[in-house]
């Protein structure tokens, strides 16, 4: 068992800083996108086994998300409202200058005692760029820009005479002060990224600290992990892996399945269709047609990042065993969404997480 496999799984949750919850459905959702609700949720989450939270990034109304709080400012507010939670702010290269973002992260990291992180989103929603008057690059170029963006911020965070020369960004003898908090095993704030394409996997292997996979089967996620690891090995790097999942835990499997059925039956069909058209167009723009959402069906798209496909639906025991199967395939972190956040996060901490930890202990016993 490698070192990362022997470590306890980490858990993150999607911050509901966007209206409409985490499913594109007209089902009742006792989840609120406002700050007071999210502050309460963040404190609850860090007391129920969650180490990370990911603030979403949306700039305009789209596909059931009529209102959106900006991700970096919202992340800082949550950092200051908590004690242990690490908050990942999703950001878009092309809408941020890397030097400005690096400065923001350094300040947020200092204020929070080293708990700030970023998720670099190369972009799938063309309107967010063009309606702001920014150019929309082709798929491969978006990832080339993102890779330069990550190299730039890591350089400026760690060097007293930062230098970078690329096709998109340049940096000349720059000394950022204060720098982010440095500590054991952490030279700089963690950099996450998502994506499914060959471009995304290659970028992760070369420059990112974490690779987020959309919801998928254990076998599907394992294939992505294998590709990223092969690239990382060539570059002498180690990458960690997270997978998205929408978790519906109930006392019986029948109850959980009924919740899923109701979510899909009450889907906002127009919004789901619009979302599906936009993301499939983005995925088709990849040279090998391996972009995200390419094989997603209508029911999958009701949850933005294919979270139903991860199969975290059932009793606490069923879900815990499913989670351990992902860990066996190389997953280090589960990024979770919920229907009714306050109730479901508390249920997870009380009923699901203890079983996960018991199963992890049993796995360690087998190899000791």
From TrEMBL:
Residues spanning the membrane: none
Q: Which residues form the Luciferase-like domain?
A: 11-332
Q: Which domain of life is it from?
A: Bacteria
Q: Which UniProt keywords apply?
A: Flavoprotein, FMN, Monooxygenase, Oxidoreductase
Answer yes or no on keyword Membrane.
no
Q: Which CDD domains does this chain map to?
A: Alkanesulfonate_monoxygenase
**GO biological-process terms attached to the record:** alkanesulfonate catabolic process
One GO MF term attached to the UniProt entry: alkanesulfonate monooxygenase activity
Q: Which NCBIfam families match?
A: LLM_DMSO2_sfnG
Protein's recorded name: Dimethyl sulfone monooxygenase SfnG
**Species the sequence originates in:** Glycomyces lechevalierae
Q: Which gene encodes it?
A: sfnG
């Amino acid at each position: 068992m490698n070192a990362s496999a022997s470590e306890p799984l980490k858990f993150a949750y999607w911050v509901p800083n966007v209206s409409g919850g985490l499913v594109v459905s007209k089902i009742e959702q006792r989840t609120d996108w406002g700050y007071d609700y999210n502050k309460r949720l963040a404190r609850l989450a860090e007391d129920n086994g969650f180490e990370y939270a990911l603030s979403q990034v949306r700039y305009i109304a789209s596909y059931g998300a009529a209102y959106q709080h900006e991700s970096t400012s919202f992340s800082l507010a949550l950092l200051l409202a908590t004690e242990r939670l690490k908050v990942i702010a999703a950001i878009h290269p092309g809408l941020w200058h890397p030097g400005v973002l690096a400065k923001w992260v350094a300040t947020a990291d200092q204020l929070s005692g080293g708990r700030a992180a970023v998720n670099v989103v190369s972009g799938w929603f063309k309107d967010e760029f063009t309606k702001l008057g920014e150019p929309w690059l082709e798929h491969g170029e978006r990832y080339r820009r993102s890779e330069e963006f990550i190299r730039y911020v890591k350089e400026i965070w760690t060097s007293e005479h930062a230098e970078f020369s690329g096709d998109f960004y340049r940096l000349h003898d720059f000394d950022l002060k204060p720098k982010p908090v440095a500590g054991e095993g952490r030279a700089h704030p963690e950099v996450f990224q998502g994506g499914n394409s060959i471009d995304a996997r290659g970028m992760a292997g070369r420059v990112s600290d974490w690779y987020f996979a959309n919801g998928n089967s254990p076998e599907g996620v394992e294939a992505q992990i294998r590709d990223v690891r092969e690239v990382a090995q060539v570059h002498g790097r180690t990458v960690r892996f997270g997978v998205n999942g929408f978790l519906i835990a109930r006392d019986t499997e029948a109850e959980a399945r009924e919740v899923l059925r109701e979510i899909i039956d009450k889907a906002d069909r127009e919004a789901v269709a619009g979302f599906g058209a936009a993301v499939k167009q983005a995925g088709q723009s990849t040279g090998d047609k391996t972009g995200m959402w390419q094989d997603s069906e209508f029911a999958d798209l009701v949850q933005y990042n294919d979270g139903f496909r991860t199969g975290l639906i059932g009793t606490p025991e069923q879900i815990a065993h499913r989670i351990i199967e992902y860990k066996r395939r190389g997953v280090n972190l589960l990024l979770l969404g919920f229907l009714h956040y306050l109730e479901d996060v508390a249920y997870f901490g009380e009923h699901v997480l203890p079983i996960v930890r018991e199963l992890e202990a049993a796995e360690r016993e087998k190899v000791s």
